[in-house]
Amino acid sequence: MVTEMTKYGFILMSGEADAFLKKLQEIGMVDITRSVKPIDEQSEKLSSKADIYRKAIVALKEVEPAEFAEKTYGDLAANVLETVNGIESDRNQLSQLRRDLEECQPWGNFDVNDIERLAKQGLKLHFYKAKAVDPAWKEQYALSEISNDGVNTYFVVVDDQNEYEFPLKELPAPTRDCASIKKEISALEDDIEQKNKHLSELKCHEDDLRKEMDKMASELDLHLAHVAGEKVAEDYITVFEGFAPASSEESLRALLDQEDVFYVADKAKVDDNPPIKLKNNKYVSMFELLTDMYGRPKYNEFDPTVFISIFFMLFFAFCMGDMGYGLVLIGASLGLKKMLGNIAPLGVTLGIATTVVGFFFHTFFSVDMLQWSWLPEGVKSIMLPSQIAGFDGTMVLALLVGVVHICLAMIVKTYQATKTKGFANSLGTWGWTLLIVGGVIVGAFALLGVMETSLATWAIIIIGILSALGIFFLNDLHRNPLVNMGAGLWDTYQMVTGLLGDVLSYLRLYALGLAGAKLGEAFNAIGVQALGDGGVNWIFFILIVVVGHVLNIAMCVLGAFVHPLRLNFLEFFKNSGYEGSGRNYNPLQSTK
User: Fold this and answer.
1) What's the whole-model pTM score?
2) What is the CATH number of domain 5-63+208-272?
3) CA 127 to CA 322: how far, in whole Å?
4) How many other β-carbons are positioned within 10 Å of the β-carbon of residue 582?
5) pLDDT value at position 232?
6) Which has the closest alpha carbon to 51: 75, 73, 77?
């Protein structure tokens, strides 16, 4: 949910602004309205310094630390970047030298000076290569074969005539000898080794780099907050605007009352564009990073994280659809906890969901568990049937989940419209929600036999009439009825064409799960073929099955992340009216 905010206005003497902002930075609760990008020379300078430290940290990310590091003097970040750039330059030179060596190696070891001395004596060397040397050439020219690489023969022709012709295209004469190139290559390799060793020593100072980067970021944040203040009364007074969670108002007022500053506090409004701080339980908060990928809600919008936490998890598990793969995800997330950091709990959660859904889909490493004779019939009976109404069970379930997802989005949209515009001004939205959601509910009751056919028919007629009033006549009470009808017809066209496409989009859940299952089955089948009569073939069986399923899991995880995210970001957000244009709550904080 979106945390309620209190808006503060601070008025103080301009000379006291820096000290006051530093105090707010120590408190760490107030988001001063400020730019997020450099806006003047000083902020550009601080931003550049912070970026240098960031680049240095990124450069050291894959470097193994040395066992012992001597104390580093001078600019640590510049030292890192200079060393990295030096390694890159050496590698480029090394690549060119290796190409030069490859070109000159067919000509063997020679001294370039010898070519120049022969030229001074009137003898010129011509360099060629050919699939085979014609014996007639040896009789007609002073030809000497140098080497053969199995494909081409390399040879030279010595000539002392001004007019010279040969039936092959002449190759450029080598400008360097192999010995000198090898010597330079060796020197560059040694230099790269020394620089990599130096980087390993610098890696031990990575924490110092992070501290300096945080310090620069803190100074930049403070400066941006300072220049955001509005100067009044001939620059003698500075006015700041800030926001803090309403829950911290009492403690913040107590701290501010101790300072020599005048401030006013009022409940934040939508027009104030307050920053957004999300407040969710431990489970839902794991999915906030997905919400942030799209954008946080506006101050008067709903927080979609709770819906994402349910449906993204369900859709992910649906796409994976394998109990064995779920167990692998749980194990991998726990084993790589240090590497994954805050994402590890999310990985475990998605793994648990995949395990549960995979059980109901009766699939274990692409093996149908319904075929296991040792599995109790009672357990099998609670698994999803392979066929529902003559169609694939998972396909039908995917469509049903999609309908529920879209209906929920429309209910949320109706609630939000009523909350922000009032009931009378949201009758058009109510009409569509009543028609779609009400129709789905009545249809479901009729199919399940809960409601008699005649009663269901009358219910649909009543729903249709009430919905038509809202859609075609009351969608905007301040507009001409004819204009409302035209707008209603246009909305009907868009809704009919768009809604069908939205529902069919959920078939991707079935398709991705099916693709992963079939690919896993293929690896299992290949492994069984390789097994044959057993014996040493067990090694090939295990290798094929393990490698195959690892690759399949990697591809399934990628698809199971992207497509459920799409269904939430497009289908759900579009039908719920979610915009996600809010700005993050970013209070002034000290990094010390």
Assistant:
1) 0.74
2) 3.30.70
3) 64
4) 21
5) 58
6) 77
